[in-house]
Amino acid sequence: MQKLSIADVKSLLEKVQTEDELLLFREDSRKGVAKLVVATEKRLEKQKKLQEQFEEMKAYELFYREQGYLQIAGVDEVGRGPLAGPVVAAAVILKEDFELLGMNDSKQLSEAKRLFYSEEIKKQAVSYGIGVVSHEVIDEINIYEATKCAMKEALDQLSVIPDYTLIDAMPLGHFENECSIIKGDAKSISIAAASILAKVERDRMMCEFAELYPGYDFQNNMGYGTKKHLEGLEKLGPCPIHRVSFAPVKSFFV
Predict the structure, then answer these.
(1) How far is CA 28 from the centre of its chain?
(2) pTM to 2 decimals?
(3) 3-class DSSP assignment, residue 34
(4) Among positive and negative, which fits the CA dihedral 250, 251, 252, 253?
(5) Which residues are annotated as a binding site?
(6) What letter does residue 15 receive in the DSSP assignment?
(7) What distance in Å separates the CA atoms of residue 168 and residue 188, rounded to the nearest whole number?
(8) C-alpha span between 25 and 18 (Å, rounded)
(9) pLDDT of the chain along its 254 residues, tens only?
(10) Which of 51, 60, 102, 154 makes the best surface tag, with the fewest CB within 10 Å?
């Protein structure tokens, strides 16, 4: 090992996947190698935690597969709270051997990671669907009912009919077999996957709306009531995608 350069050792350590593989490198007395070993230990520990988290998030899927349900759909929505734009839902059926470490509730991920995971989910999923309900419908039937409509639309777009549905937070009643899970996007890989797809799709739409209706900072706030958004609302008044049933937007129509 001593005959290898530090650069060579670094290259080898990048390929190490287990603690046992590190034993030989620990015998190297060079300080540069010792630092590389410590960095590798940290990487392996992080990898271990991600693997454990992923296994925990498979618990619901494993439980229902053991009951005989094979096509398990996860459903989640994004956009219940914003003052503008649609509510978007996604439904995803994942393969039994699906693995994508680090996947979590979309709100916990950076934009770059969401985009990466979104593409991987679409590639690996058995099927996925997206449901979009406009601000007009939200104003007409209320956000709770609009959210349910978006979820049902997403489920209806699946090319495979699920025999069990896992839903974040709210009961849906669209199919006979379903389970509503509080904070499901952090507890179920299927719901987490749906959360990511819904978030990426809605963010894309809001960035397009930002170009159509500048002045509200939609590209950054995604329609939520941030300081810049409220300042734009006060200065420009509501734009065509604002939810007129939501305060403070509705005050402009009194």
Answers:
(1) 43
(2) 0.85
(3) helix
(4) positive
(5) 76-77, 168
(6) T
(7) 9
(8) 12
(9) 567 888 888 888 888 888 878 887 887 878 888 889 888 888 888 888 888 899 999 999 999 999 999 999 999 999 999 999 999 999 999 999 999 988 876 778 899 999 999 999 999 999 999 999 999 999 999 999 999 999 999 999 999 999 999 999 888 888 889 999 999 999 999 999 999 999 999 999 999 999 999 999 999 999 999 999 999 999 999 999 999 999 999 999 86
(10) 51
Residue that the structure tokens 């300080």 belong to = 31
Please confirm whether the linkage preceding 238 is cis (ω < 30° from 0). Answer: no
Total residues found in the chain within this entry: 254
Taking alpha carbons only, the member of 211, 250, 241, 251 closest to residue 87 is: 241
User: Alpha-carbon distance 12 to 64, whole Å?
Assistant: 41
- Helix axes 6-13 and 31-57, enclosed angle (nearest 10): 10
* Known binding-site residue numbers for a divalent metal cation: 76-77, 168
190: left (phi over 0), alpha (psi -120 to 50) or beta: alpha
CA atoms within 13 Å, Cβ hemisphere of 113: 13
